[in-house]
Amino acid sequence: MRKEDKTVVVTDLSKRMLRAKAVFLVEYRGMKVSEITEVRREVKKNGGDFKVVKNRLAKRSLAGTNIASLEGYFKGPLAIAFADLDPVVISKVLAKYAGNIASLQLKVGVLDGKVVDEKGIQALAKLPSKEELYARLLGTW
To answer: Which among 49, 66, 87, 103 is most buried, taking Cβ atoms within 10 Å?
Structure first.
């Protein structure tokens, strides 16, 4: 990869990280391409993005963002899941696939500037979505 291409990737990732409401790191070691594609489609369908990027470039893109605390977690083959609309929905998708695909492992995430570990992501996945909460609120009247 040429230096100009790397610069473009780092710039795009930085913008993407600033725009996201939450960012999750997922280890995909041993997954088939078809499985990664399926996860990517499901995340995209639910208002997010799923990218596989070199760790070195991802670390460079963290500079100047509110998720710079993730820098120490980039070890091994990691994918980045961005939640643009609702972090709960993306965490549900990731938790579902982590339960179905043994080689997909939730590592860490950042939500509102705070680092969340695997247990925190699983707890977030168990929360009801915004739509469910609105329905429950309207149902009480």
So the answer is: 87
Give residue-wise pLDDT tens across range 16-68: 888 888 899 999 988 889 999 999 999 999 989 999 988 888 888 887 777 77
Q: How far apart are CA 96 and CA 25, in angstroms?
A: 15
In angstroms, what is the C-alpha Rg of the chain? Answer: 16
Instruction: Please tell me the distance from the alpha carbon of residue 2 to that of residue 41, in angstroms, as a whole number.
Output: 28
- Determine the pLDDT at residue 95: 92
Are 110 and 124 in contact by the 8 Å Cβ rule? The answer is: no
- Provide φ and ψ at 70, rounded to 5°: -80, -5
Q: State the pTM of this model.
A: 0.84
